[in-house]
Structures are given as structure tokens and as C-alpha cells.
Amino acid sequence: MEKFPSCIFLLLLTLTTHNLIIPSLSLKCNPAEKEALLKIKKELGSPTKLSSWNPTTDCCSHKWEGVLCDSQTYRVNKLDLFDLNLPKHVQIPPSIFTNLPFINFLSIDNIPNLVGTIPPSISKLTKLEVLIISGTSISGEIPNSLSQIKTLTSILLTDNKLTGTIPATLSSLPDVFSIYFNGNQLTGTIPESYGSLPKSFMCFGLAENRLTGKIPASLANLNLVLVNLSGNALEGDASVLFGSKKRTVELSLDKNMLSFDIGKVGLPKNLTLLNLSKNKIYGALPKGLTKLKVLSDFNVSYNNLCGEIPIGGKLQNFNESSYAHNKCLCGSPLRHCKT
Ligand SMILES: *[C@@H]1O[C@H](CO)[C@@H](O)[C@H](O)[C@H]1NC(C)=O
Ligand SMILES: *[C@@H]1O[C@H](CO)[C@@H](O)[C@H](O)[C@H]1NC(C)=O
Ligand SMILES: *[C@@H]1O[C@H](CO)[C@@H](O)[C@H](O)[C@H]1NC(C)=O
Ligand SMILES: *[C@@H]1O[C@H](CO)[C@@H](O)[C@H](O)[C@H]1NC(C)=O
Ligand SMILES: *[C@@H]1O[C@H](CO)[C@@H](O)[C@H](O)[C@H]1NC(C)=O
């Protein structure tokens, strides 16, 4: 069975390819950038993982953990800080934003002792394409200034302590591919403006936050591959996320307060995962579900569905737990319908 690789997986593939470029052996590290990196190391409390950041070696030699330079200009273009066990709580070293202006890839991943906020000065990274801040204790709002970085393709700010609302201005990013804010404490609604995100936009994750209100009707314009809005307090109609012409592979809307007629939605042919569990969805399951050839994860439990479960396709491959706790859903794998 074919499964579309997750957006993060795609990103890692890109990074690995870059890593394979043969390193230059000459000492070319830009002195100001080397100084900035050493300052960053010091501000992070010199964690053992960064012991390879040695002032006597070249920062572009590929020996410096998580540091990559452009093969022509020798300016630092990738900084990948991960699994750092910091001796104490520290903020993101400001030098990252002010003294490494050629970075196109910045990843700060699994650094629990990292605190403070994402400063608006992040917009000084005018060449940034991929921004990952994940698994930290960073709090405060997602800066609006991100929308000034026109090169951004992927913004993954997952499993932090971010609060406030989702910046509406990100809809103006011309080449954005994925936006993931899963696992924070974001409030407010999904911005109406996101309906005008560009055609390149494919992966959208806002799961496990505190989002409320309706899904904007404007999102009908999007053609997403991966959608994960699970674990919020979204209400009303989610049918704009469906459609028989869409390229959607995974759609997770579980654990919300969504309420709409499931019988009236169009079904993307390539759906592998559909999770609608724990909402207030009503109506009868559409027959079209039996035509989904690659459906492998399906859950409509804990809703207000009624009527007979259509027979065929993959639908009887799922057990009772995928259908249980509805208003009057019946038929295999649940009990027979009364005639
Ligand atoms: C959706 O996001 C949540 C929170 O990050 C995660 O636990 C869950 O596995 C995701 N669902 C899918 C289908 O990827
Ligand atoms: C569905 O998947 C197939 C095979 O990966 C692909 O060729 C096709 O374009 C996809 N259809 C849509 C609507 O995305
Ligand atoms: C669907 O959502 C429910 C409720 O959040 C969760 O328990 C279940 O593991 C999910 N199933 C799949 C296949 O994602
Ligand atoms: C139902 O299927 C799920 C997923 O395949 C499995 O984890 C679970 O144990 C099954 N439950 C029952 C009651 O058979
Ligand atoms: C479906 O969701 C329910 C409720 O969250 C969960 O108990 C059940 O295990 C899930 N079943 C599958 C197959 O995901």
C-alpha cells in the first residue's frame, strides 16, 4: 500500500541530500559567523553535544555538529540544533537571528530547557525557507513578522508553549508548502485569509491547541494533502475540507465539536486516513466511502450518525471501535439494522 510521505519526511529527505555534498577542505568559515556561532554555543551553556564547535577548526568543515555552509560562498546556510540537554533555562540566542543572515534552514528541535519567545527580529533571516521550532518550552505569540520572510516554505512550530492567535498575515507567503502549529496553546479562530494561501500549500496541522469557532468557508479554495485539526474546539461545518476532486490523503478532525451532514460530502479518492471521532457529525455514511481503495485508517466513533453502514470496499475491514457510540448507526461490523 502506498502512503504519501508526511511533510516532515519530505523535508528530511531534502536535508539529507544537501548533507551529501562533498565538503571543501580549505578553511573558509566566515570569521564573523564563526564568532557568532561560538557566542551561540556559550549562550546555550556550552552543551556537550556542541563540543565539536571548536574555535581552532573551520566551522564549514562539516565537523561542527549541525552547521552547514554554502559550497560557493562559505556562509553558514543551515543550522540544525537538536536533542540538546541545556544545563539551565535559556532563551534562543539572539545571534541566530542577527548574525547568520544567510541561513535558509533553521531547526531547533527537542531542547526542553529553551524558554522565552520567538523574537520579531526573526524576519532578519530574509533567506529562510524552513523554520522548525519543536519540543521546546518557548512561549508567547507566533510573530507576525514571519510573513515578511517571503522565501518561507515550511513553518513547523510544534509541541511548544505558544499562545495567542494564528497570524492571519502568513497567507501572503507566496511559496508556502506546510504550516504546522500542532501541540501548543493557541486560541482564537482559523484565519479567513488562509483560504487565499497559494497553490503550493499542502500540509496544514493545528492539532492539539485551543482553537474555537467555525472553519472558514474560504478554506474550500485549498487543495490540501495532509490536514490535522484534531483536538481543538472547532464547531460547525467541516465539509469545505472535503471534495471528490481533492488530493487529500490524511484528514484528522477528531476531538472537536464539528456538526455537519456527512452524507453530503465529496470524498477525495486518495484518502488513506479519515478520523472524525468525537464530534457532533450527523447524517448517514455516504456510499462513496466503499470506493476509497487505499483507506486504511477510519474512525467515525462518538458522533450522531444514523443509518446503515454501506457494505463494500474497506469499510468492513474496520472493527466496531471505528463506528461505536453513534446515534443509530447499524450494520456490519455493528449489529444488524432493524428492518
Ligand atoms: C495529529 O496531530 C496530533 C498532535 O500532534 C498527533 O498526535 C496525531 O498523531 C496527528 N494525527 C495524524 C493522523 O498524524
Ligand atoms: C492520487 O494518487 C495517484 C497515485 O499516487 C496520483 O497519480 C493522483 O494524481 C492522485 N490524485 C489526486 C486527485 O491527487
Ligand atoms: C482517531 O481519533 C481518536 C480520538 O482522538 C483516537 O483515539 C484514534 O487513535 C484515532 N485513530 C486514528 C486511526 O488516527
Ligand atoms: C480494532 O482495531 C484496532 C485497529 O486495528 C485495534 O487496535 C483494536 O484492538 C481492535 N479492537 C477490537 C475490539 O477488536
Ligand atoms: C476510534 O476512536 C475511539 C475514540 O477515540 C477509540 O476508542 C478507538 O480505539 C478508535 N478506533 C480506531 C480503530 O482508531
UniProtKB/TrEMBL annotation:
Keywords associated with the record: Cell wall, Disulfide bond, Leucine-rich repeat, Membrane, Plant defense, Repeat, Secreted, Signal
Record membrane topology: Peripheral membrane protein
Keyword Ligase (UniProt): no
InterPro entries, per database record: Leu-rich_rpt (IPR001611), LRR_dom_sf (IPR032675), LRR_N_plant-typ (IPR013210), PGIP (IPR051848)
GO cellular component assignments: membrane
Similarity annotation: Belongs to the polygalacturonase-inhibiting protein family.
Protein name stated in the entry: Polygalacturonase inhibitor
Organism: Medicago truncatula
